Amino acid sequence: MFTGIIESIGSIRALTPKGGDVRVHVATGKLDLSDVKLGDSIAVNGVCLTAVELPGDGFAADVSRETLDCTAMNDLKSGSPVNLEKALTPTTRLGGHLVSGHVDGVGEIVSRSDNARAVEFRIRAPKELAKYIAHKGSITVDGTSLTVNAVDGAEFMLTIIPHTLSETIMASYTPGRRVNLEVDLLARYLERLLLGDKAAESGSSQKPGGTITESFLAANGYLKS
């Protein structure tokens, strides 16, 4: 688990094809690795990866085909800056929100504009994620815990303060860029919980955009006529 509070901006040192998937080597910048062991989790742009090598000034992790297909990791190349966060501990301050590091989908930066000293971004999410994104709710963009300021269909607005711009890779975002999105963890579990006993039936989707609809809620007594 993570908090979505980025601890360091690192960079991709190398991406090495390995048996059909990829081993990524990450330079970790100011991230303190003194308490990191082989097998520990580190989020890279919001993707939870397992450290399999610790050369001292970074780490290496294996990236599966599933992760490459479901995230924007394929867009990275040698030298790409990345957001980094170590897994939280029982004494970690939860300054953001609970983040699993399991990306739900890939969004796209639609627009960027200045608002006083802040920067506003409009991001388009995959349609199946739209129902999980709420005004003033939490969302994770490339591993950064953020507050949604407005929602318009599958698009949502973020207002990013100077501190966040300087401590994450968001300062480099331009329209057209793809970003990793993780919706609020509680929203995902709530949808599954509302399925009740039907969750055990074959065909009940565990992926965002599954089987909860207005007609389902009405049929199961969650909506009054």
UniProtKB/TrEMBL annotation:
Keyword flag Nucleus: no
Short name of any one Pfam family annotated for the protein: Lum_binding
KW Ribosomal protein (keyword) present: no
Coiled coil regions, renumbered to chain: none
Complex formation: Homotrimer.
InterPro entries: ATP_synth_asu-like_sf, Lumazine-bd, Lumazine-bd_dom, Riboflavin_synthase-like_b-brl
Each Lumazine-binding repeat, start to end: 1-97, 98-194
Function: Catalyzes the dismutation of two molecules of 6,7-dimethyl-8-ribityllumazine, resulting in the formation of riboflavin and 5-amino-6-(D-ribitylamino)uracil.
Protein name: Riboflavin synthase
Pathway where it operates: Cofactor biosynthesis; riboflavin biosynthesis; riboflavin from 2-hydroxy-3-oxobutyl phosphate and 5-amino-6-(D-ribitylamino)uracil: step 2/2
Species name: Pseudomonas fluorescens
One Gene Ontology biological process: riboflavin biosynthetic process
Record-listed E.C. numbers: 2.5.1.9
Domain Lumazine-binding per the UniProt entry, residue ranges: 1-97, 98-194
Keyword tags: Repeat, Riboflavin biosynthesis, Transferase
PANTHER family in alphabetical order: RIBOFLAVIN SYNTHASE (PTHR21098:SF12), RIBOFLAVIN SYNTHASE ALPHA CHAIN (PTHR21098)
A GO term, aspect molecular function: riboflavin synthase activity
Source organism superkingdom: Bacteria
